[in-house]
């Protein structure tokens, strides 16, 4: 099991003051705007970006960056095919916009920089300048789409396993998935095939100070207990 290393969340008072500033910034930057409801569908309340950036001694760094409306962020990075068991790292802090740049400041005051490029963010160097390289440093904005997997619920634990990758995601925020699963009449904990409109992000874990990869449902759900990931291949 991967050991997760993380940074402590900043004080709530700091988050609040930053959030007021960033709400006005969001209004002037359509690519980073968020909304809650549109035509009966629930849309993300944060902006999430994902991509695999270059790595000197591994197959790449799978990077997820979540920018919340209150001016806080969570960054998760997994070093793919790394030799060390400690290959997943998390960082939290606050973010602001300066022109076309998104600036992240972690709890130690260390800054990292991204350039806005349409609907994507491009990682910059430690000085906030473009990285001179032929490799791809772009993180693409995550948008809701149809996800296929198997969902199970037991003892307040909700789990979604994606068919394509076999990767597991916490699904505890999705009351409609829980209700749909209950309507299937299966024994608790039994995986049931489901297609759901949603997206992947990061959420605080039930274990204090840790984070989980999570799935967020935003639209239609279709359970089918006669199918499975294996039968859909």
UniProtKB/TrEMBL annotation:
Keyword tags: Signal
Residue ranges of every copy of the NlpE C-terminal OB domain listed in the record: 142-230
The keyword Signal is assigned to this record: yes
Listed name of the protein: Copper homeostasis protein
Pfam families: NlpE (PF04170), NlpE_C (PF17185)
Gene3D superfamilies referenced in this protein's UniProt entry, alphabetically: 2.40.128.640, 2.40.50.540
Species per Swiss-Prot/TrEMBL record: Xenorhabdus khoisanae
Residues of the signal peptide: 1-20
Taxonomic superkingdom: Bacteria
Key word Cytoplasm present: no
């Amino acid at each position: 099991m991967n050991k997760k290393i993380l940074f402590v969340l900043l004080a709530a008072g700091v988050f609040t003051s930053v959030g007021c500033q960033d709400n006005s910034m969001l209004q002037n930057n359509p690519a980073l705007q968020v909304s809650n409801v549109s035509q009966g569908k629930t849309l993300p309340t944060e902006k999430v970006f994902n991509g695999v950036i270059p790595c000197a001694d591994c197959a790449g760094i799978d990077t997820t960056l979540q920018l919340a409306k209150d001016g806080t962020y969570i960054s998760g990075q997994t070093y793919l095919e790394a030799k060390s068991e400690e290959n997943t790292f998390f960082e939290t802090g606050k973010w602001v916009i300066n022109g076309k740049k998104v600036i992240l400041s972690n709890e130690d005051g260390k800054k990292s920089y991204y350039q806005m490029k349409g609907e994507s963010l491009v990682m910059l160097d430690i000085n906030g300048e473009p990285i001179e390289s032929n490799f791809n440093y772009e993180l693409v904005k995550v948008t809701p789409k149809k996800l296929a997997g198997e969902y199970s619920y037991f003892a307040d634990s909700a789990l979604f396993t994606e068919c394509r990758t076999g990767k597991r995601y916490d699904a505890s925020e999705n009351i409609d998935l829980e209700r749909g699963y209950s309507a299937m009449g299966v024994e608790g904990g039994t995986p049931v095939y489901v297609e759901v409109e949603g997206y992947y992000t990061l959420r605080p874990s039930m274990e204090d100070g840790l984070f989980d990869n999570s799935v967020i449902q935003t639209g239609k759900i279709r359970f089918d207990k006669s199918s499975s990931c294996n039968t859909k291949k």
